[in-house]
Amino acid sequence: MYHILESQQFDQILINRIFSIANKLEKKTDNSLKGKIMASLFYEPSTRTRFSFESAMLRLGGNVITTENAKEFSSAVKGETLEDSIRVINNYADVIVLRHYEQGASHRASLVSDAPVINAGDGIGQHPTQALLDLYTIKRELGKINGISIAFVGDLRHGRTIRSLAYLLGKYKKVKIYFVSPKKLKVGEDIKEYLRRYKISYVETEYLETVISHVDVLYQTRIQKERFSDNKEYQKYKGCYRINLHLVAKMKGKSIIMHPLPRVDEILTEVDNSPKAVYFKQVGYGLLIRMALLKYVLRP
Ligand code: CP
After folding, report:
1. Which residue in 19, 164, 233, 268 could disulfide with 131, CB within 3.0 to 4.6 Å?
2. pLDDT class of 28 with cuts at 50, 70, 90
3. What average pLDDT score do residues 109-121 get?
4. Ligand 1 proximity of 261 Cβ (cutoff 6 Å)
5. CATH code of the domain covering residue 186
6. Please, which residues have CB within 8 angstroms of residue 31's CB and are 6 or more apart in sequence?
7. CA nearest 287: which of 7, 5, 58?
8. Which atom of ligand 1 is nearest to the CA of 99?
9. Any catalytic annotation for residue 49?
10. Does the bond joining 182 to the residue before it have cis omega, within 30 degrees of 0?
11. How far is ligand 1, taken at its centre, from the CA of residue 136, in Å?
12. Is 259 a catalytic residue?
């Protein structure tokens, strides 16, 4: 694998290899990317993905060149195509981390790039590095992936993180998925078709209270305001699932609450001190996974 574009590229052998690199990085300093340059090219806003990739590169001894708002501050404003920008950046960087508002943008970039392209989120498409860090969080916190039950909650129509994680979970045994969303924000047919093909059991429901006591992982997501063309529609769904301590009390003893973040109001801050709330720990695991991925794609 040269470019990292979608979760379907990963099998269990490769996932275990990335996890093993991440485990080792937690315990020792590593300057193996000294002399390498990473370009972070972000056409959509980000806090975690951009900073964590940049921090990962710096912690590995490498360097970073960056544009945090390429839509406004790169030559895209003058009409330069994504392909031409990528061809140019190939002269400056050894790896390109790309976030873009269009589904498929990373794939397009990979077709013209000699440097590895890492998809850091492409519209409502995928976010494979988030999915890997989510899976790593599950493994670290629950000690297993096979046999888990997980509820994906919220805006499943627009959520690229749940798309990518569902694809990865399709590689494991006896996983059960509950998709919890309003009818209008249901998960895409492509994912359900994939899960059926890999014989992963899933259920769709609008009612969180009916499933919350059955799951090992409650994966909460934000209603994605920026994906709605009509603000009235967004207001209709905003706040439709809010996790509070009353709901947390219904969860299994050894279960966890995850969120890719940013959070708006879908998990109340009163939940943050619960031992089940691992969403800020998840961010730390993300740094290790992104260090591991950079080491992997830039291996000699
Ligand atoms: N989880 C995630 O992708 O966060 P950012 O949008 O802040 O990068």
Report:
1. 164
2. confident
3. 98
4. yes
5. 3.40.50.1370
6. 60, 61
7. 58
8. 8
9. yes
10. no
11. 17
12. no
pLDDT band at 68 (very low <50, low <70, confident <90, very high): confident
> Cα separation of 298 and 300, whole Å?
6
Only one residue has tokens 């009916």, namely: 210
Task: Count up the domains in the chain and report the number.
Answer: 2
Does pTM top 0.85 for this prediction? yes
| Active-site pick, 3, 48, 100, 259 | 48
Active site (annotated) includes residue 236:
no
Q: Using the mean position of ligand 1's atoms as its centre, give its distance from the Cα of residue 45 in Å.
A: 8
Same structural domain, 79 and 39: yes
pLDDT band of 227, cuts 50, 70, 90: confident
Q: Is 119 in the pocket of ligand 1 (CB under 6 A)?
A: no
Distance 181 CA to ligand 1 centre (A): 21
Q: Given this model, what pLDDT does residue 139 score?
A: 98
- On the question of pLDDT at 29 being above 90, the answer is no
Q: 192 and 258 share a domain?
A: yes
Both tokens of residue 230?
A: 């009509």
